[in-house]
Amino acid sequence: MIEREKDPIIAKLAADVFSKMAEIGKPFDTGTDHPDANIVSPEDAVKELLKIQKDQKDQTSDNT
């Protein structure tokens, strides 16, 4: 079997990409300086924003 010589630049690039992807995949620090801060899921955040938007529409329709 013929062995291929690996290009060192491509090998370094592959290692860099792998390490960057591993870094991105790590869970982030959820610690916060503010005691009242809550971590919410994106779904809960969208639900809350939609509720606020609906409440604002209801208030403006009541005023007219």
Write a concise synopsis of the structure shown.
The protein has 64 residues and is mainly α. It is built from 2 helices and no strands. The N and C termini lie far apart (83 Å).
Structure, explained:
By secondary structure, the protein is mostly helical. It has a domain of 26 residues.
For this entry, give a set of tags.
single chain; 64 residues; mainly alpha; 2 helices; 0% strand; elongated
Approximate helicity band: 55-70%
Low-confidence stretches: none
Structural class: mainly alpha
* Global outline: elongated
**Rg from C-alpha positions?**
25 Å
| β-strand number | 0
- Count of alpha/pi helices: 2
What is the beta-strand fraction? under 5%
Mean pLDDT: 82
Helix-strand string: HH
SSE layout and pairing:
Elements: H1 8-25, H2 42-63
